[in-house]
Recover the amino acids of this structure.
């Protein structure tokens, strides 16, 4: 692969943001050569970080630049004489990494650690020296980056390396910020390596680092990494896309004109907004060309509108949908429901009178900063005051002790939880890639008021293991939004889930659970239990038995009366109405009248097919027949205990059906004759009080 194909500076159209900056790009090669000159030039070495300081002041005007200058001097003197494979002095690498982070808005501590991130690994500088010069916080970050620096050496070591990287990232997300910037600069200069090594590094970047950048919300790094990987792994498609973009550059672009129209509309509405045209990067153009076929001029970019407040975003949306023709299917509100990686914006698309469709993104300036920089925009997660690179917070009192970043995203916490239980590196590697491929997260509420963060498509099984760990082996059911459901049911964002655990601690999961488990923690726990209990695992897959039915000695007559002489009255089995339920009657075949509760779904169906409605009322007698469903955990003598509880209430069992256990749960259906309908609530309470019974409801 040529250096041109892997160097974004050779393809300015791949990074349109470079054209928008007024500041010139840092010439790292020139500065690197200057670093090799004699003592006179070295007196001016701090000038080499002028671009870094300028970019840092743009985000942090009051930052202490002396710390960066001291860090640069230590890095330059430590790396002096070392060269990169491209032939440049090594100091150009930490300079480039630090500039990338400075432009994203990283705080001073991160930039200081970035300048020093290779010193402990590649020079005689020790962690103790870093601590003495710059404090425990910088020492902690440098140590974290050092532990993951061997990511590029040997495919066999990659799983364990990534395991260490996850732990380091969970302790402080700034470690991963530096690693991503480090990988970006290495990818920019990858052209000097052999093609096979380029491909290996690009695949690791594609499989893990790009998804991690997406998860951390660092879109500015993610998009450029995608383009560089695209150029290496798919050179033909990359060249075709490059030619497509070049051909478009010579045509008339409708987006600037549409942007002018948007500015006029917003100005007349009195909304202060900045309107930009954002060209798509290479991979984005390639993706939409595959889905849309031939591209039009408005497909090569999007319109970005920046405003001051959240309310202004919706005001802009209203003006756009009023003055242009909206494409309703393209509207997405990521402000009300942010993505799991902190991203917030309104997405829409509008059609112009000329027939162009322009995609529009609306966000506040703060949202824009977070959208571009993700966790980098959060600053120092341990600072309670303005960040100070030499500060020694309580969290870093013992630099070798693991700590939890308070800004740690939920998905990262899940990865840290299950990575410890992964049985082997291959399993860890496979499951890690599958987990990172998940591009959406949901939040569900627990019955105790807490929340669970789960990947989209997660089931009640995943929720059980996320909440209860190994105790979820005994889960037999769940209530979602108050309704009983199977463990295989998928959850949606905002659902409330209550997990039902068996009292028998020796119970275990069924092999079928693996078909519905989405999270690594659940899959690993289920597989481990099944491997440890092969006989029990086989037992869970045996064929279901036929339901056990018990029929009482006599039946009871209906106690509803129809206003139709000599008509036979039947109580509908679908809803089993009892006094004083409001009821409706319908004439069916054979001249009989079937009676339903008015809330029964069958009532609407009867009316829809034209069944004759018949007025019905209850007899003066208080006795009634009702069908109840009892849900319980499986245990010995349960049927006997339930029957005894029913008998104590003076109720006669007309019939009973007991279904075979499913996932440790047993379902009982009872048809009962009550001497007085008023005793129904007390009967249902008595049945619920039977040990193992967790729900009793009307049929």
């Amino acid at each position: 692969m040529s250096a041109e194909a892997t160097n974004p500076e050779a393809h300015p159209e791949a990074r349109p943001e470079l054209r928008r900056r007024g500041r010139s790009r840092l010439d790292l090669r020139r500065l690197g050569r200057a670093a090799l000159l004699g003592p006179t030039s070295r007196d001016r070495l701090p000038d080499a970080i002028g671009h870094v300081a300028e970019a840092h002041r743009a985000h942090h005007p009051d930052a202490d630049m002396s710390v960066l200058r001291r860090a640069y001097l230590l890095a330059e003197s430590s790396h002096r004489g070392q060269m990169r494979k491209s032939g440049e002095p090594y100091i150009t690498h930490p300079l480039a990494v630090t500039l990338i982070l400075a432009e994203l808005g990283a705080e001073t501590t991160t930039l200081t650690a970035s300048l020093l991130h290779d010193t402990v690994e590649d020079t005689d500088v020790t962690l103790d020296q870093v601590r003495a010069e710059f404090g425990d916080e910088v020492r902690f970050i440098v140590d974290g980056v050092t532990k993951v620096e061997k990511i590029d050496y040997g495919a066999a070591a990659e799983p364990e390396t990534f395991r260490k990287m996850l732990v380091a990232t969970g302790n402080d997300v700034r470690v991963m910020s530096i690693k991503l910037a480090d990988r970006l600069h290495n990818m920019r200069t990858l052209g000097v390596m052999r093609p096979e090594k380029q491909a290996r590094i690009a695949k690791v970047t594609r499989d893990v680092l790009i998804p991690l950048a997406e998860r951390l919300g660092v879109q500015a790094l993610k998009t450029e990494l995608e383009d560089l990987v695209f150029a290496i792994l798919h050179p033909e498609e990359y060249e075709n896309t490059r030619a497509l973009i070049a051909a478009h550059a010579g045509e008339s672009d409708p987006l600037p004109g549409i942007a002018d129209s948007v500015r006029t509309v917003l100005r007349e509405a009195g909304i202060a907004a900045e309107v930009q045209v954002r060209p798509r990067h290479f991979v984005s153009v390639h993706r939409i060309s595959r889905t849309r076929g031939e591209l039009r001029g408005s497909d090569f970019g999007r319109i970005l509108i920046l405003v001051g407040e959240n309310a202004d975003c919706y005001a802009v949306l209203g003006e756009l949908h009023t003055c242009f023709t909206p494409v309703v299917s393209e509207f997405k509100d990521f402000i009300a429901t942010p993505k799991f990686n902190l991203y917030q914006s309104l997405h829409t698309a509008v059609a112009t009178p000329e027939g162009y469709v322009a995609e529009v993104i609306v966000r506040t300036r703060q949202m824009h900063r977070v959208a571009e920089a993700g966790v980098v925009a959060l600053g120092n997660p341990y600072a309670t005051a303005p960040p100070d690179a030499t500060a020694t917070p309580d969290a870093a009192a013992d630099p070798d002790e693991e700590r939890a970043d308070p800004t740690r995203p939920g998905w990262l916490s899940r990865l840290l939880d299950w990575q410890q239980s992964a049985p082997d590196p291959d399993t860890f590697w496979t499951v890690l890639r599958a987990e990172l491929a998940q591009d959406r997260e949901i939040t569900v509420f627990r019955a105790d008021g807490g929340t669970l963060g789960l990947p989209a498509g997660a089931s009640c099984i995943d929720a059980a293991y996320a909440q209860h760990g190994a105790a979820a082996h005994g889960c037999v059911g769940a209530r979602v939004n108050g309704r009983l459901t199977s463990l295989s049911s998928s959850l949606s964002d905002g659902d409330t889930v209550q997990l039902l655990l068996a009292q028998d601690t020796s119970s275990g999961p069924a092999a079928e659970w693996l078909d519905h488990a989405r999270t690594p923690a659940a899959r690993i726990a289920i597989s481990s239990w099944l491997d440890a209990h092969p006989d029990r695992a086989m037992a869970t897959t045996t064929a279901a038995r036929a339901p056990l039915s018990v029929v009482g000695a006599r039946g009871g007559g209906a106690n509803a009366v129809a206003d139709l002489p000599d008509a036979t009255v039947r109580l509908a089995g679908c809803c089993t109405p009892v006094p004083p339920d409001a009821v409706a009657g319908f004439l069916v075949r054979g001249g009989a009248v079937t009676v339903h509760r008015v809330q029964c779904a069958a009532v609407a169906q009867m009316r829809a097919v034209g069944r004759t409605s018949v007025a019905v009322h209850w007899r003066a007698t208080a006795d009634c027949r009702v069908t109840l469903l009892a849900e319980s955990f499986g245990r010995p003598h349960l049927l006997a205990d339930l029957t005894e509880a029913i008998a104590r209430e003076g109720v006669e069992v007309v019939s009973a059906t007991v279904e075979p256990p499913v996932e440790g749960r047993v379902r009982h259906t009872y048809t009962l004759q009550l001497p007085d309908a008023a005793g129904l609530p007390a009967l249902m309470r008595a049945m619920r009080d039977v040990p193992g019974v967790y729900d009793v409801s009307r049929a």
